Amino acid sequence: MITIRSLSRCTWEQTLQLWNEAFADYFVNMNFTFDRLMNRMVREKISPAHSLVSWADGRPVEYFGFRKSTLEDMDQIVVWLKENVLNQDTDLSCVKEHVYMELRKRQLEPPTQGRMERFLRSVIRQHEEEFFHKTYEQITEKSMRQMDRLIYLWTEEENDLSSLGEEEMPITFREIVADPGRVGLDSIFQEIKKLRTIRKLELPENLFSNLPSSKKI
């Protein structure tokens, strides 16, 4: 039978043993001496009277009801992030908030703030690289050539295109991403021209199907 008791009911020997057993498989060395444990409790203002321990068979078995996250735990967090968060938001502060909530839900003690930020930056970067790679793989060579042409036109000087008539004047990426401006016939025709140019790229219809509507182009 498992019971919950205050940490203050444990001896210091039991507290030290419990700490070292609970964090034995942590991804950095968390094997503490008595002095190191005392220093950490003082530094982090951990109160034994307000901390909880699970007991079973007459001995403490779990520290505070939470345990240190292992490499396997963090690998699972990465999978959870990719499935539930990163397609919605990749802002570091927002992602961090989601992860802290999930760690609390799983009763896992988070890494230090510095280690957490390095971990999340790496996960976000990896996710973005995977997204770009998957997107690139879906684009045909014909579409690539069409986009290269728009990029090339973006870099051309205006006088290189001055000999073309109004109907022949190509549109560039700069114009595609430009704000439409005030509503009028000219702006409507320009937006129609943008749409036709994008359609000519012949991009796959499901290119961004894994993204929420708020993130789609």
SSE blueprint and pairings:
Elements: E1 2-6, H1 12-22, H2 34-43, E2 52-56, E3 59-63, E4 67-68, H3 71-84, H4 92-105, E5 108-109, H5 113-138, H6 141-155, H7 173-176, H8 185-200
Parallel strand pairs: 4-5
Antiparallel strand pairs: 1-2, 2-3
Structure description:
With 217 residues, the chain is mainly α. It folds into three domains: 2-68, no CATH class; 71-138, no CATH class; 141-203, no CATH class. The chain has eight helices and five strands; from the N terminus they run E-H-H-E-E-E-H-H-E-H-H-H-H. The chain has helices spanning 12-22, 34-43, 71-84, 92-105, 113-138, 141-155, 173-176, 185-200, and strands at residues 2-6, 52-56, 59-63, 67-68, 108-109. The chain has a three-stranded antiparallel β-sheet with strand order 1-2-3. A two-stranded parallel ribbon has the order 4-5. A hairpin with a 2-residue loop joins strand 2 (52-56) and strand 3 (59-63). The chain is elongated, with a radius of gyration of 28 Å. Mean pLDDT is 77; it is low at 161-166.
What is the SS-derived class? Answer: mainly alpha
DSSP strand tally: 5
Domains, number: 3
- Rg over CA atoms, rounded to whole Å, is 28 Å
H and E order? EHHEEEHHEHHHH
Parts with pLDDT < 50 across at least 5 consecutive residues: 161-166
Q: Main sheet: which strands, in order across? A: 1-2-3
Query: Which percent range describes the beta-strand content?
Result: 5-15%
